[in-house]
């Protein structure tokens, strides 16, 4: 979106009719934080007759100021929450710049860019937030025009909350943290995250598919609450296959075992039996982990979208048929599956198996994306299964496919 807005409002060669002055003189930057954690942070200097602030409040204000470019006014969520709703949209333009780590070793914080409406064009010609790392995208990095919309949903959340609200809340926190951590690495923009829903948009359909597969893979490895793993909506489910290898030597059996252990989203390969001298018949047992923890499903569609800036939240909202189709595709998908429309799959399939392109989605490029992805999702090619045409609540969709990592468990559409 940033590049589109820069082209839409280009820098002029000089003053003239219809041109707006956005910079002149010194480039001043400001940082704003609000709230005090203790009375010791506010003291009165009698000699100067002034109130002095210190502690965590001053440290937060200094950190956010250091992250600003010249001409920026940045604020943390503590300040943003105190702005009146009446001022938002009428007097101020508030832009969410995403979540950033401002100092090494600290947690990420939400950063907002505040502008006077008369200087709104300035936002398109400023640099990025100067942070240590970025953990979620801001609106200037959000897709524009065409987008892959992903509805990711945890199945049976209402049942789990009625059964054990504490366990359900802990599980949802783990799931949302996993999905959102992978989201930034794949270049996705978070639109909504509430309960079991994680709604995201991508400029690349290939990135959307990779994110969905990567998140499902990561969820198998999460440290789920033990109580959840005893429930039918969270218990581990494995598929065991047995292959008779015939007369072979122990080294050959070991190589077969190694090959088998590389297959699938996650597999636990059993020992080749019996472990005896050469000439024996080896039986290879391979356990494929199909489910573990929350059951998650994904629906993806790709197409034109209309982007709007929400005046109160400072975030982008999208409208368009792709939003409705993705939601309905997700509603029809089964647990543990990624379903994509034919439009999404056709847009994704070329880049999906081009390793350089498929790893270059994140804000920091290919290196960041590859570093954050699980080895299975990063290395395995992706194929799909054609499931035919479906009619979902008045919308006819040619459902190509279920993208899935090869030779992994199939997640179909």
UniProtKB/TrEMBL annotation:
Coiled coil: none annotated. Residues 293-330 form the Guanylate cyclase domain. It comes from the Eukaryota. Transmembrane segments: none annotated. One of its GO terms (biological process) is intracellular signal transduction. InterPro entries: A/G_cyclase (IPR001054), Adenylyl/Guanylyl_Cyclase_3/4 (IPR050697), Nucleotide_cyclase (IPR029787). PANTHER family: ADENYLATE CYCLASE, TERMINAL-DIFFERENTIATION SPECIFIC, ADENYLATE CYCLASE, TERMINAL-DIFFERENTIATION SPECIFIC-RELATED. This is Guanylate cyclase domain-containing protein. The lineage of its organism: Eukaryota, Viridiplantae, Chlorophyta, core chlorophytes, Chlorophyceae.
């Amino acid at each position: 979106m940033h590049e589109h807005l820069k082209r839409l409002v280009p820098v002029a060669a000089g003053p003239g009719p219809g041109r707006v002055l956005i910079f002149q003189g010194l480039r001043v930057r400001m940082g704003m934080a609000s709230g005090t954690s203790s009375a010791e942070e506010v003291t009165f200097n009698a000699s100067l007759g002034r109130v002095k602030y210190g502690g965590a409040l001053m440290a937060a204000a200094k950190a956010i100021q250091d992250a600003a470019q010249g001409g920026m006014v940045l604020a943390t969520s503590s300040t943003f929450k105190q702005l009146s709703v009446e001022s938002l949209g009428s007097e101020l333009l508030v832009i969410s710049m995403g979540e950033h780590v401002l100092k090494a070793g600290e947690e990420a914080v939400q950063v907002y860019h505040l502008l006077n409406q008369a200087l709104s064009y300035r936002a398109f010609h400023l640099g990025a937030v100067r942070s240590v790392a970025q953990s979620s995208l801001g609106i200037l990095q959000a897709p524009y025009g065409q987008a892959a919309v992903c509805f990711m949903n945890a199945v049976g959340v209402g049942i789990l909350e009625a059964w054990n609200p504490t366990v359900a809340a802990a599980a949802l926190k783990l799931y949302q943290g996993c999905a959102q951590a992978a989201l930034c690495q794949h270049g996705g923009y978070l639109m909504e995250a509430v309960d079991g829903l994680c709604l995201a948009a991508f400029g690349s359909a290939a990135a959307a598919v990779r994110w969905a597969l990567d998140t499902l893979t990561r969820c198998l490895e999460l440290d789920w609450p033990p109580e959840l793993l005893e429930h039918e909506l969270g218990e581990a489910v494995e598929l065991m296959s047995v292959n008779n290898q015939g007369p072979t030597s122990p080294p050959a059996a070991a190589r077969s075992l190694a090959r088998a252990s590389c297959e699938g989203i996650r597999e636990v390969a059993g020992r080749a039996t019996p472990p005896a001298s050469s000439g024996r018949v080896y039986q290879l047992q391979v356990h494929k982990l199909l489910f573990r923890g929350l059951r998650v499903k994904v629906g993806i569609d790709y197409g034109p979208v209309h982007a709007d800036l929400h005046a109160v939240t400072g975030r982008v909202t999208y409208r368009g048929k792709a939003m409705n189709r993705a939601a309905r595709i997700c509603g029809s998908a089964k647990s543990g599956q990624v379903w994509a429309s034919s439009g999404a799959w056709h847009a994704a399939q070329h880049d999906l198996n081009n390793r350089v392109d498929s790893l270059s989605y994140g804000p920091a490029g290919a290196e960041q994306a590859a570093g954050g992805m699980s080895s299975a999702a990063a290395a395995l090619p992706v194929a799909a299964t054609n499931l035919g045409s479906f009619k979902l609540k008045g919308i006819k969709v040619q459902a190509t496919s279920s993208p899935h990592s090869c030779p992994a468990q199939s997640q179909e559409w």
